Amino acid sequence: MNSISTKSTPSLQARKGFTGIYVHYPFCYQKCDYCDFFSEGIGEGRSNVEDLLFDSYKKEFLLKKANSQELKTAKVDTVFMGGGTPSKASPENWFRLLKFFREESDFSSDPEISIEANPEDLSLDFIQSLKEAGFNRLNIGVQTRNPRDLKFLGRYYDENKYQNLKYILQNSPIERIGIDLMYGLPDSKKEDFLEDLDYFLNFQLNHISLYSLTLEKGTSYSRNVKEKKAKPPNEEMQREILELLPSLMQKRGYTWYEVSNYCKEELFSRHNLRYWTYESYLGLGPGAHGFLDGSRYGNPRNTGTYLKHPGKPSTEETSSPREELALSLFRLFLPIHIPSFLEAYIPRKTAKKMISSLDGFAAKGYCNWDGSRFQWESTALLILDDLITELAISE
Ligand code: SF4
To answer: Quick check: 52 and 41 in contact, CB under 8 A?
Structure first.
């Protein structure tokens, strides 16, 4: 693997005084077999609780704002509508919700406002409505173009809509587009995935997320594998692909900035970057998580329960900065200004132990580290989980 040192890229710094908003829309056309997000398949058309849900997002926002010092003072610089399939809800509802957020919070001058969409919902008119609603970034859950693999994943497949993707990607009124692709499906060859990837690379998209298929507890897929009704992911092929992606993507002009995420220039997903750099965010909706004023919370994974008491979390815990920072920040392959994070979040004694682990990694050639600026080398990729665990327990 090649060195990924990016000496000209400025290092990531810890930031305070900014926050983000995540909204979880829990409905999809159908529930995919491998998916462990909180989501429910409702077929074609809108949910009959959609309007109620949008009212509840507002109620939850006001409740959280009344109780959060951070939310009252921080500038909002990212908003992300995820799910589920938020493109299944009407652009008018998103427009009204975004307007409400702008009235109730202090937005930065150039916020990133993203929405996730599935191919079946996309048309140029629909994307134009999303643009008019205020979105400036669209992330499309493609996964694969292969009908056999989509069927294996239990994903909804509309042949015309998948065929139409080319036209959508070439003419979308929203210019910042990302796609998600998946690899390592048991009956798919490495070449099938690379062909799919090459197809999308030709559109010069500014963001591409490349994930391996995983077995998530509680999903139909993991039950089917356990009962030998489905084959497990092809882990050997996943390792091979994981290893070849960084140099392949760099040759095609992409910056590798997180284990599974690539972007053109510096067009990172700024909202996701906030999760990896221990920044706060408000999470709204059933199944959403949030991180405000040093505490994490999770909302109930049940739409009915959420609608009865929007804003009443089902879990709450004080965050553990050392462990969380180790587990998230060190997934990034960008240069990181380590002292800014240690000074902001970590007690001095623990910081010393983390630094000595980084010294050890540098001595083994896993990273570039000068005592201030840190960046993984691609040699760290295949043992990243072990290296991160060492950092997380360095107390
Ligand atoms: S469309 Fe996305 S969120 Fe919905 S079930 Fe499938 S993977 Fe999960």
So the answer is: no
